Amino acid sequence: MPSAAERTRTLVQSTCSAVLVIPGLDGAGPYQLMPDARTVGSDGEVLMVFSAESPAARAATHAQDDELTAVLEITDVAPVSVPHRIRGRAWLSGWLTRVPDREAEPGRVILRLEVGEACVDDLWGAETVEAEDFVAAVADPLVEHEAELLQHLHAAHGAEVQGLRGLLGVRAEGPSGAGTAAVPVALDRFGLRVRFTGVRCFDARFDFPEPVKDVGGLRRAMHTLFDAVSSAPSGD
């Protein structure tokens, strides 16, 4: 399974929504504190693009050498329609500064969050993350494609995804109507998570034979997974 540091790094480098919280900054709505873009720098710092007139940019500029604390809150929402759609949240706290002499484009500035600590609460569970672990972690290789891949699986391979229930054995048994829908809710290099809904709602993980490195490897892993469904003995 991915480590807490890897999951946090993946969320930071994803397209999930994020809000920068600066204690003591009054009068700023959440929409004003949402970075236009973000990435992770070579030293593990989170780099964010803001309007030069935004409250966050002004606060970082006025702080200069003072330690301005801030928290980046990230909310991960499943890119497919499914019950309980929020998949997780992450919080990264640290010190905010403006990167001097660098503009992303005219009217935009780059702010730097030096991460002091982090925590994640997602489909894997809730864990804290040390700063050095976050710096050393690598985002999941599928992060840039996960949303479109899940949407494709849901739209074009619904029957195959539904068929994965046959691999669960007694776990899939339940009241009539349980598991009447199957939605691919999360995808990473280790496997696929499917949410079965109906009278009873539950998640199931389907691990790949080995972690995949790219989309090509994912295609082969998914073929292997679906082949396992077709070759599984029928419960009828």
What does this structure look like?
It contains 6 helices and 10 strands; from the N terminus they run H-E-E-E-H-E-E-E-E-H-H-H-E-E-E-H. The protein is elongated, with a radius of gyration of 21 Å. The chain is α+β, with helices and mostly antiparallel strands and 236 residues long. Strands 1, 2, 3, 4, 5, 6 and 7 form a 7-stranded antiparallel sheet that branches. A 3-stranded antiparallel sheet has the order 8-9-10.
Short account of what is shown:
This protein is α+β, with helices and mostly antiparallel strands and 236 residues long.
Mean pLDDT: 90
Shape: elongated
Please indicate the percent range of residues in DSSP E strands (runs of 2 or more): 25-35%
The portion of residues assigned to helices is 10-25%
Q: Distance between termini?
A: 33 Å
CA-atom Rg in angstroms? 21 Å
Number of strands: 10
Helix-strand pattern = HEEEHEEEEHHHEEEH
- Total helices: the number is 6
Largest sheet: 7 strands, antiparallel
Name the structural class.
alpha+beta
pLDDT under 50 segments (min length 5)?
A: 175-179
List the helices and strands and how they pair.
Elements: H1 4-12, E1 17-21, E2 37-40, E3 46-51, H2 55-63, E4 68-77, E5 86-98, E6 108-122, E7 125-130, H3 131-136, H4 146-156, H5 158-163, E8 181-188, E9 191-197, E10 202-207, H6 215-231
Antiparallel strand pairs: 1-4, 2-3, 3-6, 4-5, 5-6, 6-7, 8-9, 9-10
